[in-house]
């Protein structure tokens, strides 16, 4: 999950966003649509080249992201998009945690916000919406989130939403010439899921 400012050690990235800023526009939350895929990919790839969240080293392709989109079209693994002025401002999704069937009761959370829409509560809105969907589906017992590096805005948001720190994988990833810790947060949804 990514909420923090770009990593200062990351390579510089040209701003590919349109001139209109997302900062002052009202936010609409909605399900993801197939025509969102390029914008969602742009947000994710922007994070790959500018921060340590995620720890991917190479940008994802459109073909990969079309499959990712297809994988997030169920009530167990939904996708919520934040829109501002007709443009994608961010997204949240729940993904499969691990392949074995015993892990179907656990989902992994991801939240990414477009760089022009940060600092206005978009991540909070997305988290509230995706957690509501997780509770409503009735099949998810716990949600896990991996937060890379010193991403205090993301860690603070997780704590605010009731997540607890389960542990830290020390220096688990190597990106931009440095090792980075991965903090594991978990939210239990209850025995009824």
UniProtKB/TrEMBL annotation:
Acyltransferase recorded as keyword: yes
Coiled-coil region list: none
Statement: the UniProt record of this protein carries the keyword Acyltransferase: yes
Entry keywords, A to Z: Acyltransferase, Transferase
Domain N-acetyltransferase: start-end pairs: 27-191
Matches recorded under Pfam families: Acetyltransf_1
Database matches in CDD domains: NAT_SF (cd04301)
InterPro entries noted in UniProt: Acyl_CoA_acyltransferase, GNAT_dom
The name this protein goes by in its record: N-acetyltransferase family protein
Phylogenetic placement of the source organism: Bacteria, Bacillati, Actinomycetota, Coriobacteriia, Eggerthellales
